Structures are given as structure tokens and as C-alpha cells.
Give the backbone structure.
Amino acid sequence: MICSRHVLRLAVLASVVWLAGCAGSATAPSMFLLESADAGSGSARVSGPTLVIDPVTVAPFLGESGIVYQTEPHRVVIASNNRWASPLDSQLGASLYSELSNALSEVSVRRYGQRTDAGAMHLAVQVDEFMGHHDGHAHITGRWQLIGADGTTV
């Protein structure tokens, strides 16, 4: 007959093994970056108009480290195991800078905070939605505003 002391030891040992297995099976989160083209030499240009890319702002729920996806028409989830490797707003700003630097050959494209002349235009971008969707597509919405050197909307 097995004594209760041995049963207790076996139960404790089994619990420890089970807990160790659960702790060891956790996977590290997957980290993601947006694909970005290499920036052209926009910041080196001195002739032509200057365009300053203001910091991109994102909706508060997009500021989380987890990637946001929509599972149902009225349900949004922030993933815990799929995360942005750096903040989404920073990645979007860098991508926008790269794309515009390459596309606008006659414009000196600058990042916000770089030295600019007083005649610079500013591009402000607000991203309201940037998520995977239950229909299998990515949904991105937002708005932008081009502000002239005199402060008026162009």
C-alpha cells in the first residue's frame, strides 16, 4: 500500500513538472517592422521649396505595442504576441519621409526637428485606422494637411 506521504510527494513532483512545462512552452512575441524604401538625398538639396514632414500622429489605440486587427465588424483586438518592433507612428513617419524624398526630386524634404528655412511648408498626417481586418485585407485610413509657409492650408 502506498503511504500518503509518497502520494503527496508524487503530486508535488507532478505539479512542478507540469508548471515547468507550461513556463517553458511560452513563445517570444513576433516583432514586425514596416517595409521602407531607402531615403533619397532629399535632406541634402538646397534649391527649390522645402517640405517638412511633421511627426505622424496615430489614433490612441494604434499607439499600443501590439498589432491591431479587427476580428468582427465591431470588434478590434490588440495582439499580445505580434508587436511592432518600434512605435507605429515613428515607422510611418520614416516611411513617409523615405517615399517623399525619393518621389519629389525638386523638393527638399526634411524631417521635423531638422534645421529648415522660414519658407518651409509642413505636411501633417493623422492615421485613424491601420489594422488587419477580418476580411483578410489591411485597412488604413487617415487624413493629411499641407500647410504653407504662411500657416494657411494649401
